[in-house]
Design brief:
Blueprint (H helix, E strand, L loop, with lengths): L9 E3 L8 H8 L6 E8 H6 L2 H5 L8 E6 L3 H13 L4 E6 L4 H4 L11 H14 L4 E9 L5 H13 L4 E9 L6 H4 L7 H10 L4 E5 L5 H7 L5 E4 L1 H5 L7 H6 L8 H17 L4 H5 L12 H11 L7 H8 L10
Parallel strand pairs: 1-2, 1-8, 2-3, 3-4, 4-5, 5-6, 6-7, 7-8
Helix pairs in contact: 4-6, 6-7, 15-16
GO molecular function: flavin adenine dinucleotide binding; FMN binding; tRNA binding; tRNA-dihydrouridine20 synthase activity; tRNA-dihydrouridine20a synthase activity
InterPro entries: Aldolase_TIM, DUS-like_FMN-bd, DUS_fam, DusA, tRNA_hU_synthase_CS
Keywords: Flavoprotein, FMN, NADP, Nucleotide-binding, Oxidoreductase, RNA-binding, tRNA processing, tRNA-binding
Length: 330
Amino acid sequence: MQPPEPDRRFSIAPMMDHTTRDYRYFARGLSRHALLYTEMVTTGALIHGDAARFLAYSDREHPLALQLGGSDPQALAQCAAMAEAWGYDEVNLNVGCPSDRVQNNQIGACLMANPELVAAGVEAMQRHCRIPVTVKHRIGINGNDSWEELVHFVARVAEAGCRTFIVHARIAILEGLSPKENREVPPLRYDWVHALKRQFPDLEIIINGGFDTIGACREQLEHVDGVMVGRAAYHSPWLLADVDPLIYGTPAPVQSRDAALDAFLPYVQQRLAAGVPLKTMTRHIMNLFHGCHGGRRFRRYLSENAHKPDAGIEVLQDAMGQVSDNGALL
């Protein structure tokens, strides 16, 4: 019996070097319901590399989706089967990353110019797994950025069986802009994503791009089926404490930043015992106390001490002691 499909009303975007298993474990302590995504993993890394290194996670992270980067249907199918075997709740195809490195390997946003290839990949993935296969894409790329081309892309991939489209509401400019600039320079077109939902009412349309409060996310649910948040969820992690109350109507798992960190400590201890350096985990929580009394001291203490070779759990505990007034706001 298959588990229920994830509730995608709120999700945290896949972000390279950010949405690691350590970050995801911490984020799950702030929201029971948010759908979490891995970093993008290329099909080549899974097929020819150390698959366990990329696929391992803690059971607490569910609901959890694996994002794949690739374009060869056979390789995508093989990796989708691996995702299901490892217990992921969804497998997602990246058709949005604009970096030169992935373009050279026919990965990411450049695939928007080839909806037939994306459709072939989706069909192959679905033949080899029973979990949902979803696609994350832009509203276009330079040279293929008309409304008609966007509609054609979604229609063709939907015809191949994809029911969920996560749409970054910007075009990607494939030459001349860095990935960071591609998240900031092209204008946001939320109206296009809203129009996609009207055009395809039977598809699940998730909007992504530029949201930095949960209140703004909730407003979007009047127009689309869900909202995906990226950098704001990483750089201001405490905003995730509003997800369950404001999006799902359930209590937050923790009521304070201190409680969130206390709940993280046993996991940190376990990972330290497995040989994972403390800095690998603490880099994800630097901004937990942003705007609080002692928040800067907390950040500074971790920056100066977590990287030391012998850094243990006591460094994190001492950092917590730098925060005054139980994390009260300034």
